[in-house]
Design goal:
The chain is an alpha/beta fold and 248 residues long. The protein contains ten helices and eight strands. The chain has helices at residues 17-28, 47-53, 80-85, 96-100, 106-118, 131-135, 139-151, 178-196, 198-203, 240-244; strands at 6-10, 37-41, 59-63, 90-93, 122-127, 160-164, 206-209, 228-231. The chain has an eight-stranded parallel β-barrel with strand order 1-2-3-4-5-6-7-8, surrounded by four helices. Strand 3, helix 3 and strand 4 form a beta-alpha-beta unit. Helix 7 (139-151) runs parallel beside helix 8. The protein binds phosphoenolpyruvate (PEP). Phosphoenolpyruvate binds next to strand 8.
Amino acid sequence: MARQFFVGGNFKANGTKKQVTQIIDNLNSQELPKEVEVVIAPPSLYIDLAVKENKQPTVQVGAQNVFNKPPGAYTGELTAEQILDVGATWTLTGHSERRTIIKESDEFIAEKTKYALDNGLKVILCIGETLDERKSDVTLQVCARQLDAVSKIVSDWKNIVVAYEPVWAIGTGLAATPDDAQETHKGIREHLAKTIGKEQAEATRILYGGSVNGKNAPDFRDKADIDGFLVGGASLKPEFVDIIKSRL
Ligand code: PEP
């Protein structure tokens, strides 16, 4: 089954109003392939700006995080309703920086994912193992546990894109090899087939994330279960466009 190539750009807590505008201006000035779905996730303060500045029909704007409840007395949080209100359509959940630094649990991430989906957002659900877990050979068990928290409470996965991001590869310049990434993606899809059903597992896009750049992105092109990328550092640079075009 053909799954549409997908590239996400996670700006993290980087950039100013001026820099975010420059990144989007650069995207606007390019001829982007119509067949590639692109989502950019600027810092929450600049989501509104990004929605207004973006002129590319294939580029959508997302949040990097979302809360698991409706608007209310939750100081510092960002709700799905507010994200949608400013015209963004996606959110990340479960990024490893939130799992490890902010100590978000699998269950909390699953609740956020469900709340976002139930209220009309699409979700890039991030999963992945730490270096210690990799060394202990429990990569797939960790991914399965993170996915199971979501599949326990979400049965319809059509608006979920999974991003497999080994923690040791994020921001380190040490991307997983295409073969290693493919092996894990295959394992993730097989696991999803058991939990959400073969048909949904086949349709779900699984992105690779971790030190992807304009140079190494084409190396992943022949990997059957790698349906795109989630990009951090390189999404702030002009080479993001090379990643978007890496499957042409
Ligand atoms: C990320 O944070 O999602 C990521 C993949 O970062 P980087 O591309 O910088 O490794």
